[in-house]
Amino acid sequence: MARQIASIEMIRRLVSMDTTSRNSNLELIGFIGEHLAGLGIESRLVHDETGRKANLYATLGPRDKPGIALSGHTDVVPVDGQQWSSDPWTVEERGGRLFGRGTADMKSFIGVVLTVLPEILRRKPKSPIHLIFSYDEEVGCLGVRRLLEVLANAPVRPLACIIGEPTSMKVMVGHKGKKSLRCRVHGRECHSSLAPQGVNAIDYAAEVVGRLRGMAKRMAEKGPFDANFDVPHTTIHTGVIHGGTALNIVPKDCQFDFEFRYVPGVDPETLYGEIRGFAETELLPQMRAVASEAGFEWEQISAFPGLDTPVDSEIVEFVKSLTGANSTGKVAFGTEGGLFQEAGIPTVICGPGNIAQAHKPDEYVDVDQVALCEDFMGRLMDKLCSLPAAS
């Protein structure tokens, strides 16, 4: 007889709420808060500056000592322009998979956590279990920063953190950091037949993009390298560019967005300084020789630090004992883990699903992965609770 997966109905409920990052997440946070309150668990909200979004923090068990945090983000990426086989906001189960936006990234983990709370309470935690549910992770790990600022001054805060991003329930100890930037190039317009009298913003933008590509090639050839990553070196990528109005007009403006995804030991500020120095030392004098108003503007779009938890740390050994794994790895995608680490909270990543299924049409999580996560939570209770599992 097929195993009954207790968390599926909770996952259905969470996925039904459209928490795309551009939207408020308060419906979902309110639902979680009511669910906790129904179990007698107090929660605290830390809102954004608009009041339309919030992080939620709660503690089960004793409040006078630190414990393990279970953390997940509530926002999801858009479905705009994607061709789905079913309604992305209604979980559809077929072929042993749960389809819907956020099933992999990462509402299945949150659903499992919420489902096992009554059993955690029944078994009476002797060590606290903290819940952290954040907003705006998908747009730069923005929301959790506010919560971490609050926790920094709290008398008791988490001893360590498990982030349930999709890792196929494998223990991951690191990911690259990211710094993304926008460069605006300002030149001077003129008729294209008189091109030397103008400053072509697209041309100069192309020079900078070309230098970025050269930097990327250098990183690929010379490193530094970390073989634990799928791409073992820092990557530099230009993803968006806009400029010009008509072919017979020398373009006055051009802007482009680029990013550094860097391995441990690489300083993104050094990379940023290198490309900015090239633009302003080598290119700007050429531009200003024609037009004094020409120049560059630089804006940071987002940034988050990398995660690099030592493989021999207590939290890594603890989570390995919950999964039965003997090894660890690192993930290609970013998480809030580096921010927890910077806040002095050792962190690992371990959750159901595979990132390869996230962010695309017909996102799904295997039901077997949800079952593995439920088993993981059972072993967590065995470690942290006073009473045994119900027979």
Account of the protein in words:
By secondary structure, the protein is α+β, with helices and mostly antiparallel strands. The chain has 2 domains: 8-175 and 306-384, Zn peptidases (Aminopeptidase), CATH 3.40.630; 177-304, 2-Layer Sandwich (Alpha-Beta Plaits), CATH 3.30.70.360. The chain has helices at residues 8-15, 26-38, 103-122, 143-152, 201-222, 268-288, 314-323, 337-342, 367-384, and strands at residues 43-47, 54-60, 68-73, 92-94, 97-99, 129-134, 160-163, 172-175, 177-186, 190-191, 235-243, 249-250, 253-262, 295-304, 307-308, 329-331, 347-349, 364-366. The strands form 5 sheets. The chain has a 6-stranded mixed sheet with strand order 1-2-6-3-7-17. It has a 4-stranded antiparallel sheet with strand order 11-13-9-14, covered by helices on one side. The radius of gyration is 24 Å and the shape is elongated. 43% of the residues are buried. The model has no long low-confidence stretch (mean pLDDT 96).
Layout of SSEs?
Layout: H1 8-15, H2 26-38, E1 43-47, E2 54-60, E3 68-73, E4 92-94, E5 97-99, H3 103-122, E6 129-134, H4 143-152, E7 160-163, E8 172-175, E9 177-186, E10 190-191, H5 201-222, E11 235-243, E12 249-250, E13 253-262, H6 268-288, E14 295-304, E15 307-308, H7 314-323, E16 329-331, H8 337-342, E17 347-349, E18 364-366, H9 367-384
Parallel strand pairs: 3-6, 3-7, 7-17, 8-16
Antiparallel strand pairs: 1-2, 2-6, 4-5, 5-18, 8-15, 9-13, 9-14, 10-12, 11-13
